[in-house]
Amino acid sequence: MEFPAASSRRGLVPWLGFLMAVFLLTLWIPPTTARFEIVMTSALEGQDVILRTQNRPPGVTGFIWYRGFVMNYTNLIAYVSWSSGKYIKGPEYTGRETVKFDGTLTIRNVTVWDLGIYIVVAILHHSKTEIGFGRLNVYRPASVPTLLASNTTVTENEDVVVMTCYTDEISIKWLFNATSLRLKRRMKLSQDDKTLTIDPVRREDAGNYQCKVSNPVSSSESAPVELYVNDRVSMPTLLANNTTVTENEDAVVITCYTDESSTNWLFNAMSVQLRESMKLSQDHRTLTIDPIRREDAGNYQCKDSNPISSTESAPVELDVKDEANVSPLHLG
Ligand SMILES: *[C@@H]1O[C@H](CO)[C@@H](O)[C@H](O)[C@H]1NC(C)=O
Ligand SMILES: *[C@@H]1O[C@H](CO)[C@@H](O)[C@H](O)[C@H]1NC(C)=O
Ligand SMILES: *[C@@H]1O[C@H](CO)[C@@H](O)[C@H](O)[C@H]1NC(C)=O
Ligand SMILES: *[C@@H]1O[C@H](CO)[C@@H](O)[C@H](O)[C@H]1NC(C)=O
Ligand SMILES: *[C@@H]1O[C@H](CO)[C@@H](O)[C@H](O)[C@H]1NC(C)=O
Ligand SMILES: *[C@@H]1O[C@H](CO)[C@@H](O)[C@H](O)[C@H]1NC(C)=O
């Protein structure tokens, strides 16, 4: 296909003529044949990129590269012809570009200013030309997103957790315990993927959450946010093997029945002060008083807690009798 302006031989070199023409892409592209074009390329800022062409026509004698979508002298990077041995640099040559004889354009240390449309002109014999275009995408490294949760210590089946990923990137993925989060029915992502709502939260949701953002050439993960999900503490049950006991004679065993790991003991609504005659089992669930003393009479409770709630058992009242009162043998 002949480029219309190419035949007008004004200017120093023939191609200066068609430099003035505005490039109307669709004008030159036969829709059916495999067209000569620049392979779309994505790069990270600072990388060296090679813009390649495909479907190059046969019999090429030189190439002209432009940065921008207008083929004028202002946008010229370089012209190379191996029929004439010429290598001409244009205003868009910045010292980082190299046009090779295979038609590729190498740009070292690309910046976001380099992104956009490029045009390559293949110069064929008899002043014929073929024009290809393509796009260079240049991305900055995805910056680290920030993940924030409305609350990280919550109660199962009661609370709603909203997590928000703060980022400028468009592509956002969510990670749970370092693998891709599988959305449950209780979970909802906002349309822009930036907000995850868990309503209501369940025990199985406990763990580490991250958001991972990416662009076509880099990705970055937020610091993890750990979600703690607690049951509402159920009321423990307290039982004594005998609640009416005799001073100095009897012993009593009081047991707290609970699922929680953290149990505290109360005596008359205050924290129990362990005396020599009192022993707590290692799991804190059993209190043994041996022997019973007068001052042990009163109300006992156990109290369960997790990081967000606590519940006390109903009290068990210990009635301590004098030795004399209950031992008829001593009365005689
Ligand atoms: C070439 O095109 C660019 C973009 O349209 C324009 O800014 C520039 O002035 C043009 N230069 C010439 C010499 O026409
Ligand atoms: C790459 O370009 C940046 C500016 O865009 C410059 O600061 C840096 O020094 C360059 N690096 C090299 C290796 O040329
Ligand atoms: C987080 O949830 C817990 C349990 O529902 C609640 O007690 C606490 O006040 C909440 N914290 C914030 C900051 O909303
Ligand atoms: C996620 O990790 C937490 C520890 O951070 C662990 O307790 C929880 O069982 C894990 N959950 C799943 C489903 O792997
Ligand atoms: C507890 O022991 C006393 C004797 O010390 C006895 O009189 C009382 O019946 C016992 N109570 C129970 C519930 O076993
Ligand atoms: C309660 O337990 C203590 C300590 O094991 C024991 O001495 C006492 O006989 C028990 N009382 C009853 C009524 O079983």
Sheet/helix structural class: mainly beta
**Through-space gap between termini:** 133 Å
CATH overall fold name of the largest domain: Immunoglobulin-like
How many whole angstroms does the radius of gyration measure? 41 Å
What this model shows, in words?
- It is a single chain.
- The strands form seven sheets. The protein has a six-stranded mixed β-sheet with strand order 2-11-10-5-6-7, with no helix packed on it.
- Mean pLDDT is 87; it is low at 1-27.
- The longest helix has 5 residues, at 15-19.
- It is mainly beta.
- It is built from three helices and 31 strands.
- It folds into three domains: 15-139, Immunoglobulins (Immunoglobulin-like); 146-230, Immunoglobulin-like (Sandwich); 237-325, Sandwich (Immunoglobulin-like).
- It binds 2-acetamido-2-deoxy-beta-D-glucopyranose (6 copies).
Keywords for this entry:
3 domains, single chain, 6-stranded mixed β-sheet, Immunoglobulin-like, binds 2-acetamido-2-deoxy-beta-D-glucopyranose, CEA_cell_adhesion, 332 residues, 3 helices, mainly beta
